[in-house]
Design a protein that fits this description.
This protein is mainly α. It contains nine helices and two strands. It has a two-stranded antiparallel ribbon. Strand 1 and strand 2 form a beta hairpin. Helix 2 runs antiparallel to helix 3, helix 3 runs parallel beside helix 5 and helix 7 packs parallel to helix 9.
Length: 182
């Protein structure tokens, strides 16, 4: 297992930090992954990075989970810069993988990323279905469990559905919500 995946699955350390401390600068996809983590929060799209992402997707990586994690972040990068067709194309690459072999944390991250692609086109039903699936399939013992749950709640807040008609969404309705957090 690649060190980036091992750390991602076993800690709740920030992905940017994990990649920075564990990438191989000689491996093209890993070097592009590092650049992607540095560029994803900037306000301007990096066109050179877009080309590198395409090349890295084509070249692949020996660790399929690292490849999938890279593709998820690439999908989100394209989404953030309103490149929805490209984001959907990248999403379809992940869907071609055998879902049973993808660790639940990575699968949950993917489902949340995929759900965001439905927001701009107004398909709220599919958005909600995917967000619920993202938390339903997640291992409660995962160090990233709360991160995924808070992303889930944050998405409902963005939709204006966390607080409706004078009441907050009932936490008890959230799949896999820890009972000790109320």
């Amino acid at each position: 297992m690649h060190p980036i995946i091992q750390k991602y699955l076993s800690t709740n350390e920030n992905l940017d930090t994990i990649v920075e401390n564990n990438f191989n600068k000689e491996q093209f996809l890993e070097a592009t992954f590092y650049e992607l983590t540095k560029e994803i929060h900037k306000k301007e799209v990096n066109k050179n990075l877009l080309n590198a992402i395409d090349q890295a997707i084509i070249s692949g990586h020996p660790d399929s989970n690292l490849y999938i994690l890279f593709i998820i972040l690439s999908m989100l990068y394209n989404y953030y810069f309103s490149r929805l067709e490209r984001a959907n194309s990248i999403c379809s690459i992940i869907e071609s993988f055998s879902q049973e072999k993808i660790p639940s944390v990575i699968k949950s991250f993917f489902l949340q990323g995929k759900a965001t692609l439905y927001r701009p086109v107004g398909n709220i039903e599919e958005f909600i279905k995917l967000m619920q699936a993202s938390v339903s399939s997640l291992d409660k013992n995962s160090p990233r469990h709360l991160d995924i749950l808070f992303n889930y709640m944050g998405m409902f807040a963005l939709q204006g559905q966390l607080y409706e008609n004078g009441t907050y969404k009932d936490i008890a309705e959230v799949p896999n919500w820890p009972k000790h957090i109320q």
